[in-house]
Design brief:
Blueprint lengths: L2 E2 L1 E4 L1 H5 L9 H14 L3 E5 L5 H13 L4 E7 L2 H10 L6 E8 L2 H8 L3 H16 L5 E6 L6 H14 L3 E6 L6 H14 L7 E6 L6 H10 L4 E4 L13 H10 L6 E2 L7 H12 L20 H9 L27 H10 L7 H17 L5 H9 L11 E9 L7 E8 L2 E8 L3 H13 L4 E9 L8 E9 L2 E9 L2 H16 L13
Parallel strand pairs: 1-10, 2-3, 2-9, 3-4, 4-5, 5-6, 6-7, 7-8, 8-9
Antiparallel strand pairs: 11-12, 12-13, 14-15, 15-16
Helix pairs in contact: 2-3, 2-11, 3-4, 6-7, 8-9, 16-17
Bound molecules: 3-methyl-2-oxobutanoic acid and zinc ion.
Keywords: Acyltransferase, Amino-acid biosynthesis, Branched-chain amino acid biosynthesis, Cytoplasm, Leucine biosynthesis, Manganese, Metal-binding, Transferase
Subunit structure: Homodimer.
Family: Belongs to the alpha-IPM synthase/homocitrate synthase family. LeuA type 1 subfamily.
């Protein structure tokens, strides 16, 4: 029997800390449900003390998800721990993850605390967290640059205080695999009560080594890996869940551990996170990139056709790539539509939502003959169905004109809190003109940080998915839209972002000063 490797997903917490990746409560619930289907062991659902919205999101995830442990992050301060304890209360299984920095530079410059004070605070925090749950995780932040002797001291003390998981973060992505693996070996050997806790790796990807460092930790005794879908996270991101999981699964000859992940849910999870955050996946990204299983060169294709294993070490279907077959068309009925959505694990809370989605499906089928699974997934993600609560703006109609040598023009009609308004504008292109027309009605004053378009399937009739990132007074939001017409998709994404902007909270960053 192999040891179980706990997969701790922090897409909703560390992933969300990435500037611009902030998600609404509804979006977090959707991702959490997908993570549950993926069978991750632990979902770090957020930092409840950051804002009321973050608290409510963690609470909502704890209420909704049944099969994964729900974790809330807390600095080693009373309010954070109490808020985390409250937020995870509805969970079948809840965890508090508390942390304090242990590296000389963090203790001296950020915390302004002596090493003795840090040990005392860490022990106090773990004991307080234990009053809310038996499942407490402790992280010595910036462990990768901490003195190993001091780490041994803190960790021994927090295990005695009741921490069941010890997470070792390489907070700034400074470590290299041999060194990080050796650190685990050292800690597990030297700390007398190390057998009373599960040791965990939490790596950042600043040197592109997060996955390699996490795997080195596993080879040296780590039995939990903290990771995010698509490697989402601040700066260069966190350890990519899909890469760690598939490395373990594919190289069972090398690793003494196994996971319980349902790998066929990896690609749907990747698409959902990319779609919601607007952080597109690069085509050559391992496992979930569009080219990850594409065999372009003639030699490779020939080899794969003769014998798959000549050039393939994993099967695309095993990570959830569909074989791109047409699933529905213009004449498919409501029942076929509902059944295929159910097979894809997409459920609606009300009949009305299903009906709305079916209307959208019919509209799409009129414009696009062959409907693929990816189209259906995009269709239900589209903000026309998954609406922002209490939306202020809605797209009523859009007319654009463009001609060689002339300025492109757009005429947009918006529903603005019950009233229709129309405006025209010219721009560098039709998308620019459309955004200018919208802006002339809403006067958001926000700046556009990102605009991107990607195609859901191949072909010029494919659905285009657009992402728009906007910023105003420190609040950053992402809007998404999908349509076979990319200008309409762009307008939808812009309006979706505007609807989110008005309610976006200003949040505290967990790794800022206490
Ligand atoms: O990278 C880090 O140190 C963290 C901690 C909060 C665990 O994310
Ligand atoms: Zn981190």
């Amino acid at each position: 029997m192999k040891d179980h490797l706990v997969i701790f997903d922090t897409t909703l917490r560390d992933g969300e800390q990435s500037p611009g990746a902030s998600m609404t409560k509804e979006e977090k619930i959707r991702i959490a449900k997908q993570l549950e289907k993926l069978r991750v062991d632990v979902i770090e659902a957020g930092f409840p003390a950051a804002s009321i919205g973050d608290f409510e999101s963690v609470q909502a995830v704890a209420t909704t998800v049944k099969d994964s442990t729900i974790c809330g992050l807390a600095r080693a301060v009373e309010n954070d721990i109490r808020r985390a304890g409250e937020a995870i209360k509805p969970a079948n299984s809840g965890r508090i993850h508390t942390f304090i920095a242990t590296s000389p530079i963090h203790m001296e410059k950020k915390l302004r605390m002596s090493p003795d004070e840090v040990v005392e605070r860490a022990v106090w925090a773990v004991k307080l967290a234990r009053q809310f749950t038996d499942n407490v995780e402790f992280s010595p932040e910036d462990a990768g640059r901490s003195d190993p002797d001091f780490l041994c001291r803190v960790i021994e003390a927090v295990i005695d205080a009741g921490a069941g998981t010890i997470n070792i973060p390489d907070t700034v992505g400074y470590n290299v695999p041999e060194q990080f693996g050796a650190l685990f070996n050292d800690l597990l050997t030297r700390i007398p009560n190390s057998d009373k806790a599960i040791f965990s790796a939490h790596c950042h990807n600043d040197l592109g080594l997060a996955v390699a460092n996490s795997l080195a930790a596993v080879q040296n005794g780590a039995r939990q890996v903290e990771c995010t879908i698509n490697g989402l996270g601040e700066r260069a991101g966190n350890t990519a869940l899909e890469e760690v999981v598939m490395a373990i699964k594919t190289r069972q000859d090398v690793f003494d551990v196994d996971t319980r992940i349902n790998t066929q849910e990896i690609v749907p999870a990747s698409r959902l996170v990319a779609n919601i955050t607007g952080f597109a996946v690069q085509p050559n990204k391992a496992i979930v990139g569009a080219n990850a299983f594409a065999h372009e060169s003639g030699i490779h294709q020939d080899g794969v056709l003769k014998h798959r294993e000549t050039y393939e070490i994993m099967r695309a279907q095993d990570v959830g790539w569909s074989d791109n077959k047409m699933v529905l068309g213009k004449h498919s009925g409501r029942n076929a539509f509902k059944t295929r959505l159910q097979e894809l694990g997409i459920e609606f809370e009300t009949e009305q939502e299903l009906n709305d989605a079916f209307v959208r499906f019919k509209e799409l089928a009129d414009r696009k003959h062959e409907i693929y699974d990816e189209d259906l997934q995009s269709l239900v993600t589209d903000n026309n169905i998954m609406r922002v609560e209490n939306e202020t703006y809605r797209l009523v109609s859009l007319k654009v004109s463009t001609e060689t040598g002339e300025s492109p023009e757009a005429e947009v009609t918006l529903w603005i809190e019950g009233q229709e308004q129309t405006a025209k504008a010219q721009g560098g292109g039709v998308v620019d003109a459309t955004f200018k027309a919208i802006e002339s009605m809403v006067h958001s004053g926000a700046s556009l940080l990102l605009y991107s378009v990607s195609n859901v399937t191949n072909g010029t009739d494919a659905l285009g998915e657009t992402a728009v990132r906007m910023e105003k007074a420190g609040r950053i939001v992402n809007g998404q839209g999908a349509d076979t017409d990319i200008v309409t998709a762009s307008a939808k994404a812009y309006i979706n972002a505007l609807n989110k902007l008005k309610d976006a909270p200003v949040k505290a960053h967990p790794q800022a000063d206490v």
